[in-house]
Design goal:
The structure is a homodimer of 240-residue chains. The first copy, chain A, has 240 residues and is α/β, with parallel strands linked by helices. Chain A has eight helices and 13 strands. At the A-B interface, helix 4 of A face helix 1 and helix 7 of B. Chain B binds a DNA duplex (30 and 30 nucleotides) through helix 6 and helix 8.
Chain lengths: 240, 240
DNA sequence: CCGGCGCCGTTACACGCCGTTACAAGGTTG
DNA sequence: CAACCTTGTAACGGCGTGTAACGGCGCCGG
């Protein structure tokens, strides 16, 4: 990455705003917080974000209105964040020029993944002809994981069926390779909740994932156990 | 396509008026906005619409009155738009010559679907009066879905019969590919209503759609199940 | 107005995911 | 070496999902 993409987060709830900013910064984005539409307008006079993440329900000018205004003049891509179940707003949102939307409450990883996807789409002028996906693939040791289509191919190119939990788990690893990921982190990533005491859910899910990756826990090629620490994804991961 | 049907939208609220016009134009109709009955009369001296979409509650002459006047002289078909749940208006509306009735707030898609239905009914030559797929055809894995003609072609170009519900469901997917769509979202999209507890309607509809797409639920190429989340359309979709 | 037909919502049941539990196999500590 | 920890995983069962079957309802042709 040449330079960190700049993302504006427009959200009135201070807690969610701070959460979103910290999530993005943790993933090495450059994030700026705006508490309302006016603050965004002010920011836009000084810098042009690569992406605007916009809450729909806000005091003052609401997100749909801001979205309409900005996309009408060909501004940066916009991701709308809407309260859960507000489907009509969602549909209209896309029709008035938003590039994506995210239902609230959102999973931390969803926010980051979708931001990445939009930025990639916006920056790539080349139409990639990758099989069955809009673009992004994670490759490791001949395997490839398609996060958009939620599919995994083994080194022979044969599809391997992953359950929802296994897919989320593997996603966490390929997006954070060569780092020790604690069980707490993995629990939060895959389920969005904290582990209860004596919770073995991660261990069992991991055991099942290892089997599908044909990884031997005695001498693992992919997922190494770090005693008292968590797990570590050993292969080098390419983003293609 | 012979020529885009011409639709007049009579509605005093500028936001709803703009929304309706933009929805119709997106579907290749030719739409004209009128902010009141007088503007409609003015328009009628110049062009005859194929359909008039008419708000009931308006300052000045109200929609019922306009409807009575126009249908009495055998004018174009009329769709009334009224405040929600106003059954009396509904009955009166249909008795004084309206062809259909749309409760407000309406689903964006519902407006378009009903407009299409009326035009189809009104014109003896069914398909030719509707805007053809000109700009809108969704292709995925060799299949193609024509939203205007409501038809699906398999990779060999053979037509596959879809029921209304199946078509709406597939529409939702091709317009939101590679995104997890919740059952709530799909219910709202296809029926415009909320799911009741233990509602399996979406699951069953989806199962039927999968069969027509010849998609194996055990290792789906098209529609993947995301447990506790919803469904995801995996293929890359092109708009042609 | 009647009867057939097709759509689709409901129901019922089968099946597979995954969280829990239990136990085994190391490792660690004293 | 004993006691205790951590981790791997088989087994079990609750529950979410797939889908066959049934039947109500609306549509359409007599």
């Amino acid at each position: 990455m040449t330079e960190a993409p700049f993302i504006a987060v427009v959200e009135d709830d201070p807690e969610i705003r701070a959460l979103a900013v910290s999530l993005l910064e943790r993933e090495n984005f450059d994030a700026a917080a705006c508490e309302n539409a006016a603050a965004l307008d002010d920011l836009l006079t000084r810098r042009t974000p690569d992406l605007i993440i916009l809450d729909v329900m806000m005091p003052g000018e609401d997100g749909l209105s801001v979205c309409r205004r900005i996309s009408a003049q060909g501004g940066p891509p916009i991701m709308l964040v809407t309260a859960k179940g507000d489907d009509i707003d969602r549909i209209i949102g896309l029709e008035i020029g938003a590039d994506d939307y995210l239902p609230k409450p959102f999973h931390p990883r969803e926010l980051v993944a979708r931001a990445r996807a939009i930025l990639r789409r916006a920056s790539s002028t080349t139409a990639s002809a990758l099989p069955s996906s809009g673009g992004h693939l994670f490759r490791f040791e001949g395997w490839s994981l398609d996060p958009a289509a939620r599919g995994l191919l083994d080194p022979d190119g044969l599809p391997v069926e992953l359950s929802a939990g296994e897919f989320e788990l593997l996603s966490a690893f390929v997006q954070h390779p060569q780092r020790v990921l604690s069980r707490d982190f993995l629990m939060d990533w895959t389920k969005g909740r904290d582990a209860t005491p004596f919770d073995r859910a991660v261990d069992v899910a991991l055991s099942r994932l290892r089997r599908k990756l044909r990884d031997d826990p005695q001498s693992p090629k992919f997922i190494r156990t770090v005693r008292n620490g968590g797990y570590l994804f050993a292969p080098r991961v390419e983003r293609a």
